[in-house]
Each structure stands twice: as C-alpha cells, then as structure tokens.
Amino acid sequence: xxxxxxxxxxxxxxxxxxxxxxxxxxxxxxxxxxxxxxxxxxxxxxxxxxxxxxxxxxxxxxxxxxxxxxxxxxxxxxxxxxxxxxxxxxxxxxxxxxxxxxxxxxxxxxxxxxxxxxxxxxxxxxxxxxxxxxxxxxxxxxxxxxxxxxxxxxxxxxxxxxxxxxxxxxxxxxxxxxxxxxxxxxxxxxxxxxxxxxxxxxxxxxxxxxxxxxxxxxxxxxxxxxxxxxxxxxxxxxxxxxxxxxxxxxxxxxxxxxxxxxxxxxxxxxxxxxxxxxxxxxxxxxxxxxxxxxxxxxxxxxxxxxxxxxxxxxxxxxxxxxxxxxxxxxxxxxxxxxxxxxxxxxxxxxxxxxxxxxxxxxxxxxxxxxxxxxxxxxxxxxxxxxxxxxxxxxxx
Length: 396
Ligand code: NI
Known about the structure:
This protein is of the alpha/beta class. Helices cover about 35% and strands about 25% of the residues.
C-alpha cells in the first residue's frame, strides 16, 4: 500500500475506483446523446436513455415529470435528509460545426452548452452512489431536468412535485473557461435573475415629410431606449449588479413612411431581489412617461422568468470540503455572472449550491453556446467523483 494511512476501502478510493469502472460507459452515453440532441421539452429519447440506465442500476425512475423530466431516488442505509442533485438535458438551436465523429446528426440542433455532459455525469453519480447507498444517512434524489435553455423546465418539474420534501440541492455546470480538473464556486448570488419585456409603442403612421400629421413611434422608442439606461445608472444601488439590454428594435418599412408602431424586446438581469423590483417598476414608469411626453400609446408586457441563483453556505461549505477531501486543492472561488440558470428555482425551495466543473481542453479557447464547442470529456468522471463525495459527506 503506497500510503500507510489510507485503507483501500476509504471513500476516496472507493469513489475513484467506482467512477473509473463506469467512466467508459458514461462517455459512450454522452456521445450518443450528443449525436441526438433534443430541444427544450422534446427530450424524450434522452429521457428514455436516462430511465433505462437508472433501471439497469436497480432504481425505479419516474418519467414524464415536468413533461420530459426524470426523477429517481437512492435510499440510504439509515434515515436522514433528502439531497437533490439536478442535471439538465436539453440542447440548443445551433448548427454544429465541430466535425467530431459523434457530432450532431440533427441539422440546427446541438449540445453546445454541455447538457449531454451533465446528463451522463448524473448517471455516473447514480451508479457510484447506488454502490455506496448502505453508507448514506438519507436519500439522494436524482433530477434530470428538461428545458433549461428556455428557463422553464425547473418550474415544470417543481410543479410536478420534483422538489417536494427536499432538504438541500446541488446543481452543476461545466465551465470551458476553467481547465478540466479544476472546480469553482461563488459565495452568495452567483447567477442573475432573468426577466424580459416586450414594449409595443403605438403611434400614428403617415408621410415622412409631414411628421406633424403623424405620431412617430420611432422617435418615442429611441427615447425609451435612452431612458432605459438610467435604470441601472440612476435607480439601482451601484453595489448591486444589474443589466438592462434592449435586444430587438423592430419598426418601419422604408425611407418615407412613419410607421404605425415599434416593438422592443429587452432583458433585465439582476443579482438582488430588491433590484428586480426596482427595475420592473422603473421600466413600466418610463414606458408610461414616453406615452405622456410623446403622445404614443404604450403596452408593456413584463415577464419574470427566474430568480437569482443564490448559493447557500450550508451546502456550499460542505461541498467544497468534500471536493477537497476527494481530489485535493482543485476548487477555487470565481466571479458571479449575469447569465441565468433555472436551477435557481430549486435554490428558491431549499438551501442549494451550484458547483462549477472545469471542462476546458488544454490549449482551446472555448465558449458555451458556440457551434464549435468541445468540452473535455474527462470532466464527466471528475464531476462524478466530486458530486458523489459531496453527497456522501452531506449525508454522512
Ligand atoms: Ni447550460
């Protein structure tokens, strides 16, 4: 034995060996899912693979949860709390250009966010924890979620009971900006609330040469776009990050016509619940103000999609400690992002933590959501080890 203080049966070795045993199968599953990507709420083939694998492990998966989601539980040898671990399964409407032998066979659809990686990682966790079940005090609930990319799958699953009775939850995402083998965390709010609005600015069409006889919605919309910039700079606390972006401005047809209406689409990202309220109130007020000052009629449709994802130290600290025990000094603190993730819906139900798993291939400068995305598959086995150890230690 190379280390006198380490028994061959210690959790570290057991988890590593169990992961190594299952890793080739996980890569196979990941590549299969990658070749056959499915968009939000269409993940029936993927859910079928997940359910079959869970059944093969001796678990009893429940399918059709949140339309196309799958849930299974691993009961420990002793009673204790319920820990949920959640993976997402959906792909993106992107045409893959990697030329990998297992590239997407479906035109215009691709696993460009690595949810294929997440799905196979959680299947690996299922295999490892099934093995360790007698040592768990409590229950691990495995949640395979659809439709993360449209920020609707988590809410659908929760409505179907997927989060009932959970005491804590762990989510995870691969990070190509972090080298494979590394892990990351953010204390507190780590991802933003994502809200969106449609603003219809109704004017009165007419000849471009006679604007006094019309009501110009283009000038009114331009004023709104300018004024919307004051929400972040003048109304939200500068120490509370927020973004307001108008991503679409549609109106008009040609040089000499004042159009009838303009349609704006915007997104609002905030890390604090308080800023979320302030931004909505301010944008509604500015829209009404444009109506008064520019004579247009405005119709604002404002939709709150997901809350900020706030990590809870009660889960974060034990998971960091577990990752260090399993793999050494591989986890470090990162920065919050104004991106959004609907794991936030689970985090709003129970104390939660989202683990970042490095997936960057050495020498590649890669990003999520791009047609050439190629995460390093070794992140699957490493993720399995980290998450399995986290579960084992949280349910010790
Ligand atoms: Ni993603």
